[in-house]
Write a structure and sequence with these properties.
223 residues, 4-stranded antiparallel sheet, 33% helix, 24% strand
C-alpha cells in the first residue's frame, strides 16, 4: 500500500506578476483521509493554492505532485482533475447547464459514465446536499445558497479521491451549514478546505494551516 501523500506542493512560489509573489516556499502534503483547513488574510493566496493543485494556474518555481507523480503539463493535470474535485468560491463559475440535474450529472458524464448511471449519481448527490426535489429546477433561478449546494452536489457526484473546497458555506443559512458539516464528516475522501467560517472549520477540520507570503504554518491549536 502506498503511504505517500495524495497531493503535495514542494517549495512552491507563485505570483501573478514575476516581481510580486503572492507567496513563496509553500510546502504541503495531503494524505488519505485528512481534512485540512487553510486560513489566511484576504489576498494571501488561498484560492490560488487550490487552483495550483489542479493545474488552473502554474507555479513560478517548485513542484506539484499528485498520486505519487510529478505534474508538469496539462496532460498530467487533466488526469489529476479526474480524481480531484474543486468547489469554486463562486458557484456561477461551476454551474452552466439549464437544470440542476444536468449540472450535477456533467462530471460523471465527463468521466465516461453511461447517462443513466450519471443521472443516478446526480440524484443521489442532490439528496446528499438536501435538495432531492431540485432535479428539474432551472439553475440560474436558484438562490445563492441553493446554487452553492448544487455546486457541492456536482463534485460529490464524481466520487473523487480528494475534494478542494473553497468557501463551502458562503451564502448558506445555519441549517444548510449544519447539513454540509455533517456531510463533510461522513465522507472518507481527503479534503483541503478554505473558509472564513471558523465555527464550521471547528466542526470538520482536523488540522489548520495558515497561509502567508512566506509559506504555510500549522496553527491547529489557535483556530
Amino acid at each position: 500500500m502506498n503511504d505517500g501523500p495524495l497531493l503535495a506542493l514542494r517549495n512552491v512560489s507563485f505570483g501573478y506578476e514575476s516581481d510580486r509573489p503572492v507567496f513563496r516556499g509553500v510546502s504541503l502534503e495531503l494524505h488519505p483521509g485528512e481534512r485540512i483547513a487553510i486560513g489566511g488574510r484576504n489576498g494571501a493566496g488561498k484560492t490560488t493554492l487550490l487552483h495550483l493543485l489542479v493545474g488552473l494556474l502554474r507555479p513560478q518555481s517548485g513542484a506539484i505532485e499528485a498520486f505519487g507523480r510529478a505534474c508538469r503539463g496539462e496532460e498530467d493535470f487533466a488526469a489529476v482533475r479526474r480524481r480531484v474535485a474543486l468547489l469554486f468560491q463562486d458557484s456561477e463559475d461551476q454551474l452552466f447547464c439549464p437544470t440542476a440535474i444536468e449540472d450535477v450529472a456533467f462530471g460523471p458524464l465527463n468521466l465516461g459514465l453511461p447517462p443513466p448511471e450519471a443521472r443516478a449519481r446526480a440524484r443521489e448527490a442532490l439528496a446528499e446536499v438536501g435538495l432531492p426535489d431540485f432535479e428539474d429546477r432551472v439553475t440560474h433561478h436558484l438562490s445563492v445558497g441553493e446554487k452553492k449546494r448544487v455546486a457541492l452536489a456536482s463534485i460529490l457526484s464524481m466520487r473523487p479521491d480528494v475534494m478542494l473546497l473553497d468557501e463551502p458555506t458562503a451564502g448558506l443559512d445555519d441549517q444548510a451549514v449544519g447539513l454540509v458539516a455533517d456531510m463533510v464528516r461522513r465522507l472518507s475522501c481527503a479534503m483541503l478546505i478554505v473558509s472564513q467560517d471558523h465555527a464550521f472549520l471547528d466542526r470538520v477540520a482536523r488540522r489548520t494551516l495558515l497561509l502567508s507570503a512566506d509559506g504555510l504554518r500549522d496553527t491547529s491549536d489557535s483556530l
